[in-house]
Specification:
Elements (H helix, E strand, L loop, with lengths): L3 E10 L5 H12 L2 E7 L2 E8 L1 H13 L6 E10 L8 E2 L10 E2 L2 E2 L14 H7 L43 H8 L20 E5 L2 E4 H13 L4 E4 L4 E6 L3 H11 L8 E2 L3 H7 E2 L2 H8 L5 E6 L14 E5 L4 H12 L6 E5 L11 H8 L5 E5 L11 E5 L2 E6 L8 E3 L8 E3 L9 E4 L2 E4 L9 H18 L5 E5 L5 H8 L4 E4 L1 H12 L6 E11 L5 E10 L2 E8 L2 E2 L5 H4 L2 H8 L4 H8 L5 H13 L5 E2 L2 H11 L11 H9 L11 E5 L2 E5 L1 H9 L5 H28 L3 E5 L6 H13 L3 E3 L11 H11 L8
Parallel strand pairs: 2-5, 10-17, 12-15, 14-18, 21-24, 24-25, 26-33, 28-32, 33-34
Antiparallel strand pairs: 1-3, 1-4, 2-3, 6-7, 8-9, 8-17, 10-11, 11-16, 12-16, 13-14, 14-15, 18-19, 20-23, 21-22, 22-23, 26-27, 27-28, 29-30, 31-32
Length: 771
């Protein structure tokens, strides 16, 4: 029987993840001739052999791909047979001539690979004193190591990364060119002979390699703060148990109470200190290696890192540099955890090179550990938690970006979606793919504005897109709202909480109708007030606000976010004289309380709000958790940490209809909270408040879902970072026969807004809500 020849075009995450070596092995197994190569579209293969062998080969590509790859499409076409020969791996198609089809340029469609945490094989090698890579801080293979942080252009080849200047030694070159070696075409492949090196300065003299690592470990052991160049930028590290070192770090970063992430030596160490579920264990050990919020076994532990909270953000050593550093620490008898936080001053971009670090971190760190592998794309650590049985993002960055969500609609033009101002990220579309950028930070900070534009330039180049249209938030004063015009683009406007809802719809491929709750801090409403406790539905190309939290005044506007006593005082005034009397003492002074009450009564600098986040602030303040916050959601996070088992009954919200809107009335809840008196009241308030809100939300949502004839119900907005509320509301909806959906592929907070904006434009939704 004559041989057949097939062309196979594979798109998805198929570069930088060992895909071509896997294809080569499948070709050998099936005795196939032909070739495979990377190109700007992904991977192209020509395979020739008996029909049964070719079909077995294609089946292997579909079902036996490397674990970090993802096939989004595989297109097979018949072509003319050629002389048989050995199967080869061709050089990547990188020139203009190689990327033309029928005289037309091939558009870039390849997916940029994300950075991968240290794999078990490389970890074993670098911890083996007999291995040539013993404690080498840049050990990697096709299953791990830098990708996005070092790539400049596609296709993903060494010459197009920041490793281009490091010429491989003969031993590394043999590995790199051997299709059966796991380092075949591992673009960052290196060893101590030919690769990057760590270095520091001792008394003005440059010290490299193991000696530099040794000095860094000694500095940490002595209680110093070390600035450490990591994968996507600098970390600031110190002994997590060292109260004085952590206090100095907090003072320097102006973070007196905000939780700090820690890095622990091993999973076994983590198991001894945290309550780790199977999903959390899986997350910790996964190739993206994110920070995972874990519950403490001892509620009083890790107070330096996460004061008054029941959980801590924990990560394992995800680079060989971290692993080598812990090995040096162990040799000095240090067996604890390290605070490992972003190497920046408060709210600024993470530093990515020696010059930036010396300028930004001087006066914070007492010791600097550098390395000479350049970082092209700066990126912070991803932060996750497991809620309602699924991993969810608090911050989407290293290991998670770049990643494309496939929209259920194809935009008419390539889009730039500017996102929001807080926890900013943006979104670019390519066909029906929506790419979120890495976490950028709050755009109130000028450095983050520059970072946003820097990342925009790099990602448009990498993806090969040139946006022709834009979407921005409805808020007229957001910096992000002005960005499209700065880039020469005309923008549609998408309401903030609708974007939250649509981000979940995008992740799940939902088409209208659907409905859900958007519980958030603040967002500009289509009526000019501040929204944040919303029940929304989408039908056809229109959307509707079907319900809300009862509105209240926010005396001082944004000041109420960090001074929750303001909102509490304003709300208590609506609950009667007895409630107001109990709250009056929580203000810093009687005169301040009187002023705030007058402001609220007259509507002076006291915008109307339906914010669920501010309700949480007020309840936390009423529960005795403080009248001031030093970081966003401090009171609500501490309130969540206090909750005990689920009560039989929660506080009851009054549910009424105000015009066309269903309204959740918080007044009976706040009155009940203020009536609680005994010393254990805070824990009881927490449990009853969370359950009462979950019950009220589930009841309203169930009614909406029945009216729209849908089973899927969306829970979105930053308030659902609260895993207790997410889990209890999800349970109550499931018990009623509905399927609760929340963000999984994009952050639960405002980091998802840009994805929702992309859905908004792609679906052609109206900007204004229907009446």
């Amino acid at each position: 029987m004559a041989d057949i020849r097939k062309k196979i075009i594979v798109k998805g995450v198929v570069q930088g993840v060992g895909f071509r070596p896997n294809v080569y092995k499948l070709a050998l197994e099936n005795r196939i001739s032909g070739w495979v190569r990377n190109d700007l579209g992904g991977v192209t293969i020509e395979a020739q052999g008996p029909a049964s062998a070719v079909e077995s080969f294609i089946s292997g590509i579909r079902h036996k791909s490397p674990p970090q790859s993802r096939i989004d499409s595989l297109v097979v076409s018949g072509i003319r047979s050629a002389p048989a020969g050995p199967f080869t791996i061709k050089e990547s198609a990188a020139s203009a001539g190689d990327t033309m089809r029928h005289g037309v340029p091939v558009p870039i469609a390849a997916m940029i690979p994300a950075d991968l945490g240290l794999c078990d094989d490389c970890r074993r090698e670098m911890l083996d004193p007999r291995d040539r890579r013993y404690l080498y801080p840049f050990t990697n293979c096709t299953n791990c190591g830098p990708r996005f942080t070092i790539v400049k252009t596609l296709p993903y080849d060494r010459s197009k990364t920041t490793m281009a200047s490091f010429k491989m030694c003969p031993a590394c070159s043999r590995e790199y060119h051997d299709p059966l070696d796991r380092r075949f075409h591992a673009q960052p492949n290196a060893c101590p002979v030919c690769g990057p090196r760590v270095y520091c300065f001792e008394r003005g003299r440059r010290v490299e390699g193991q000696k530099a690592l040794s000095l860094a470990a000694a500095a940490l052991k002595k209680g110093e703060i070390v600035a450490l160049k990591s994968l996507g930028g600098f970390h600031l590290a110190c002994d997590a148990a060292g109260a004085m070192a952590v206090a100095r770090l907090r003072a320097a970063k102006r973070r007196p109470h905000k939780p700090l992430a820690i890095m622990v030596p091993s999973l076994a160490w983590a198991v001894r200190h945290f309550d780790i579920s199977a999903r959390e264990r899986e997350l910790l050990l996964s190739p993206p290696a994110p920070i995972v919020a874990l519950r403490k076994l001892d509620p009083g532990s890790f107070g330096n890192a996460a004061p008054r909270l029941s959980s801590v953000g924990v990560m394992l050593p995800y680079t060989p540099l971290h692993e080598a550093l812990f090995a040096e620490l162990a040799a000095r008898g240090f067996t604890g955890a390290l605070v490992m936080t972003s190497g920046n001053r408060r709210d600024e971009p993470i530093s990515k090179d020696e010059t930036e670090a010396k300028e930004a971190l001087a006066g914070i760190a007492g010791f600097f550990l550098f390395h000479d592998r350049p970082i092209h794309n700066r990126i912070d650590d991803s932060v996750t938690f497991v809620g309602a049985g699924e991993p969810r993002y608090l911050r989407m960055a290293r290991g998670a970006v770049p990643f494309a969500v496939r929209l259920p609609f194809r935009p008419k033009a390539q889009l730039y979606c500017a996102g929001a101002d807080l926890k900013s990220s943006f979104c670019l579309t390519r066909g029906d793919e929506a790419y979120l950028s890495q976490y950028i930070g709050d755009l109130e900070e000028e450095g983050n504005r520059d970072f946003h534009l820097e990342t925009y330039r790099k990602m448009t180049a990498l993806l090969g897109v040139k946006p022709r249209a834009a979407v921005a938030d409805l808020h007229p004063d957001y910096f992000s709202s002005a960005l499209p015009a700065k880039l020469g683009l005309k923008a549609e406007r998408c309401q903030h909480h609708l974007a939250h809802l649509l981000s979940v719809a995008a992740e799940n491929g939902l088409k209208p109708p659907f409905c859900g709750a958007a519980f958030d801090g603040t967002g500009y409403g289509s009526d000019g007030t501040i929204w944040g406790g919303e029940f929304l539905s989408v039908s056809g190309r229109t959307w509707r606000r079907e319900g809300r939290l009862r509105p209240f005044r926010l005396p001082g506007g944004d000041a109420a976010t960090l001074e929750p006593w303001r909102a509490l005082l304003s709300m208590a005034a609506d609950c009667g004289p007895a409630a107001l009397a109990r709250v009056f003492r929580l203000a810093p002074s009687a005169s301040a309380a009187s002023t705030v009450l007058k402001m609220a009564s007259a509507g002076v600098n006291s915008p109307v709000s339906s914010s669920m986040g501010r309700l949480f602030d007020a309840v936390a303040c009423a529960a005795g958790l403080g009248s001031f916050s030093t970081y966003e959601a401090q009171g609500p996070m501490e309130l969540e940490s206090l909750r005990g088992p689920r009560n039989r009954a929660g506080y009851e919200f009054a549910v009424s209809v105000n015009g066309a809107l269903t309204e959740l009335d918080w007044r009976p809840v706040l009155a009940a909270v203020l009536a609680e008196k005994d010393p254990a009241r805070a824990a009881r308030i927490s449990a009853k408040f969370h359950l009462g809100l979950a019950e009220a939300a589930a009841e309203v949502l169930a009614g909406m879902a029945r009216r729209h004839g849908v089973k899927d119900v969306i829970l979105c907005g930053g308030v659902f970072q609260n895993r207790v509320l997410l889990e209890w509301t999800s349970d109550l909806l499931s018990a009623r026969g509905f399927r609760p959906l929340a963000n999984r592929l994009s952050p639960v907070n405002d980091g998802c807004i840009a994805l929702g904006q992309a859905y908004f434009a792609a679906a052609g939704l109206s900007a204004a809500p229907s009446k």
